[in-house]
Amino acid sequence: MTSTFPALLIRDEVLGSHRVSLTDMEPSELMDGEVEVAVRYSSLNYKDALGITGSGRVLRRSPLVGGIDAAGEVLSAAEDSGLKAGDPVLVTGCGLGEIHHGGFAGRIRVPADWVVPVPKGLDLRQSMILGTAGFTAALALQRLRANDQDPGMGPILVTGASGGVGSLAVSLLAAQGYEVVALSGKTRQHDWLKSLGAVKVMDRRGLSQGWRPLETARWAGAVDTVGGEILGWLTRTVDEWGNIVTIGLAGGAELRTTVMPFILRGVSLLGVSSSNYPTERRAAVWAHLATDWAIPHLDDIVTEEIGLEGLESASKRMLAGDVHGRILVDLQ
Ligand code: NDP
């Protein structure tokens, strides 16, 4: 019986060429950790697409198995880990696919504190339709709530709405009673975004490119996956005491604004960094995602299911803006 497993290995030499190969690995090639997992599902996130295509400095060692998400069954675990063979578990972020062999493989071996038992109410497949994107959308909701963003304050704008984080945020916030307006560059997906719960969809290409410190307030709050000009525009158009959760940089890493929104309107800019979210607080967030923050429409949000061999082309399409929703990676 062979114990090798398939893996997507990325070579990202600073001065060399970028290469991605589908390879067979031995368990002995895995990195240190107290828990070994037979991976059943992973998912494709923006960061993975940057790493696979070599478009961004995601990998901090090379060669490395990509994949910042993984879900599967425990094969073996240290006795004091609280886990046993057969337990359904997931890992998101924590350095997976960045400094540690990741989830685009039949197996992972990871430190025990990275591992979250899949909560009752979710199965392995659903946990990876959510993956880092769903966990991040949940953290955005948590930050909004903690900073008093009440649904009664008015509409929340979600940017990059057709993307993985964006579509899950639209569905989650709508289910939590917020009036969600979706901002998207994909005209073809407007009806789909409405089916996920957006009351209105706006085309991002029609936005004002003005540069006044404050513009007419239009949003009670925002969840932004785009950054750049759009985030700057949000600071100028969010109403008094509203919150903007900044998550991504699909449209740029810079932020051009002034202090005016913060000191004249009391606007707050809240960050989310899912990858290094404290491990001891992760299970509680996942428990919410399985119960009171359950995201409806998960089956409509997963738009593609691919194997390891489909990752390179899907990554290119993702960075070109040719995908929407979530791409599930099936390793079964
Ligand atoms: P996706 O590719 O699935 O979604 C990105 C979306 O952004 C696209 O669907 C598109 O939406 C929009 N977009 C793409 N390019 C541009 C552009 N040039 N200008 C304006 N909008 C654009 O990626 P993810 O959902 O996986 O990730 C989104 C962002 O969030 C990424 O930057 C990612 O790195 C970041 N991220 C951050 C996390 C954190 O913890 N802070 C965790 C997860 C992701 P549309 O066409 O509808 O406008």
Automatic annotation (TrEMBL):
Protein name per its UniProtKB record: Quinone oxidoreductase
The Enoyl reductase (ER) domain, residue ranges: 16-329
InterPro entries recorded: Acrylyl-CoA_reductase_AcuI, ADH-like_C, ADH-like_N, ER, GroES-like_sf, NAD(P)-bd_dom_sf, Zn-ADH-like_protein
Position of the signal peptide: none
Gene Ontology molecular function terms on file: acryloyl-CoA reductase (NADPH) activity
Organism of origin: Ectothiorhodospira haloalkaliphila
NCBIfam families to which the protein is assigned, alphabetical: oxido_YhdH
